[in-house]
Write a structure and sequence with these properties.
Strand content: under 5%
Low-confidence stretches: 1-35, 56-71, 73-86, 217-226
Strand order of the largest sheet: 1-2
Order of helices and strands: EEHHHHHHHHHEEHHHHHHHHHHH
Number of strands: 4
Helix content: 55-70%
Mean pLDDT: 79
Structural class: mainly alpha
Length: about 500
């Protein structure tokens, strides 16, 4: 059964209905999640004691043997594949869904323009090198199927291949090139297509309504009106969500799916607002997927969830609810301040690059990379997590609350002071007019986040302390001054609409 959830032109993008979701994952799909067939299992899990004492050589062995003994001892027949409703992504409804998705993939020229804009003005989830590599191999491998005018027969051929790949776990890789090849070319997966649609939607949100890119021809109708920006972005979001639904149908959880879930979460936040209940549930699903894959623990995987900590704490602050991810359960390290190209380096080259960083892990060239921004936001977010712990948790005694507030205040100021010069906002900076829009946007956003942490600290119970109330008022004034500076530079930040909203939002 197909349930239509959105329409693009006269041909809808559909969710696969409930009948195709009622299944257990196949063994191959299970292996894609975490370190074993059931995903990440921590030290308190049912199998921990067996692994620690080497009763079984692997989690999979223990799980299979335990289930086998259960069926044998109690004379219970083990269900067959058909009885377990194993989902076959190569079924015709899924392939047809893929055809509808691929028909909406922009042409190569438009894709390249969106990617260039995304990499220049957005918070990047996927490093530039694998992103561009995947995009190039899409057209070099499937250029015939995607040639205009696109035909259902050829798109069906491509969709079938992507569905087949999505049912297989990602191949292990020993170097960067092998890793990129494991999900590109003839190994292309729906996760990659979904990530592309997501970044197209995010890029659209950063553009002005009159941008020439929005003068597109679709179904012989020209769209060139103020609503086209939101319409195009919404259509891209629906396609990304349809790709995610196909991944969910095989219970596929891997680094690329987590990246796709993060991008879709960001898109939904931009187009629906943070007060959406659906957004809150989606973020809960993202947090569950991160922990199921074990990404909250220290790992050598390509994707780390540190970029998800800031949205988690920002959304928790906005809604006044406990965050779905917490520093208390995350042991993953903050990424070093490396460029995307440097992250792809290996061996001695990588060690040389790491040696060039300062003792705190920041680059010494004064550049602002995606990892630079991620490190800065994460340092703010860890403070925010502790503030939320006091604000939303069990009440503290007055003296304990005061002690923790002073400690957090000092550590918050220290964390901001330790940021590199290129990230710190100077209230009376005489060279601000010559500063790039990108740098100014990052500086003012981080400054507002630092002030919000201080504001929330001063709002903690204080039993009428006059000094605290005065500090609260002074911090509020500084935040308002920051908003006025943003408004005065609105034209300069025209390409950074998302950052403008993030910087202004905390005051309201």
């Amino acid at each position: 059964m197909i349930q239509t959830v959105s329409s693009i032109g006269s041909d809808p993008i559909d969710w696969i209905g409930p009948e195709l979701h009622t299944h257990l994952p196949t063994p191959d799909a299970e292996k894609a999640a975490g370190d074993g067939p059931l995903g990440y299992l921590g030290p308190t899990s049912y199998s921990a004691i067996f692994r620690e004492n080497a009763v079984y050589s692997a989690q999979e062995d223990f799980s299979n043997k335990a289930v086998g003994h259960f069926h044998q001892d109690f004379n219970i027949a083990k269900p067959t594949a058909s009885e377990r409703h194993v989902c076959n992504l190569e079924s015709q409804p899924h392939i047809d869904q893929g055809v509808r998705i691929l028909r909406r993939l922009p042409d190569r020229n438009l894709c390249e323009k969106f990617i260039n804009r995304y990499l220049s003005v957005c918070d990047v989830m996927m490093p530039e090198q694998p992103l561009r590599y995947c995009h190039e191999t899409i057209w070099s491998t499937f250029g015939r199927q995607l040639a205009e005018p696109r035909k259902d027969e050829q798109l069906s051929e491509m969709s079938r291949e992507l569905c087949k790949n999505a049912m297989m776990p990602l191949s292990p890789s020993s170097n960067t090139q092998e890793w990129m090849e494991s999900f590109s070319g003839h190994r292309l997966r729906w996760e990659i297509i979904g990530n592309l649609f997501s970044l197209f939607g995010i890029s659209a949100m950063t553009m002005s309504e009159w941008d020439p890119l929005f003068t597109i021809i679709e179904d012989n109708t020209a769209y060139n009106n103020p609503d086209n920006k939101r319409l195009y972005g919404e259509n891209m979001r629906m396609c990304a969500e349809a790709c995610l639904a196909l991944c969910n149908d095989v219970d596929c959880v891997n680094d690329l799916v987590i990246c796709l879930m993060s991008e879709v979460f960001m898109l939904q936040s931009l187009y629906e607002g943070d007060a959406s209940q659906q957004l809150w549930r989606r973020h809960g699903g993202l947090a569950s997927a991160i922990t199921a894959l074990g990404l909250h623990r220290e790992t050598d995987r390509a994707y780390t969830p540190t970029s998800n900590l800031s949205p988690s704490f920002m959304l928790a602050t906005f809604m006044g609810r406990p965050p779905t991810l917490s520093r208390r359960y995350c042991t993953c390290r903050i990424p070093l301040d490396l460029s995307d190209a440097q992250m792809m380096a290996e061996g001695e080259e990588l060690e040389t690059i790491k040696a060039s960083l300062d003792p705190n892990g920041w680059n010494t060239s004064g550049e602002i990379y995606p990892n630079t921004v991620c490190r800065a936001w994460t340092s703010m977010s860890l403070i925010r997590d502790e503030i939320l712990e006091i604000s939303l948790g069990l009440p503290f005694e007055a003296h304990e609350a005061e002690s923790r507030r002073e400690d957090l205040k000092c550590r918050s100021e220290e964390a901001y002071a330790q940021l590199p010069t290129q990230l710190k906002y100077q209230v009376d900076d005489p060279n601000r007019h010559a500063m790039s829009a990108f740098r100014f946007n990052i500086q003012i956003s981080l400054y507002q986040e630092f002030l919000l942490n201080s504001f929330l600290l001063y709002r903690l119970p204080d039993h009428g302390s006059a000094n605290v109330k005065q500090n609260l008022l002074d911090t509020a004034r500084k935040m308002l001054d920051g908003v006025l500076v943003l408004c005065a530079n609105r034209d300069k930040l025209i390409n950074y609409t998302i950052g403008f909203v993030c910087a202004v939002g905390p005051l309201f």
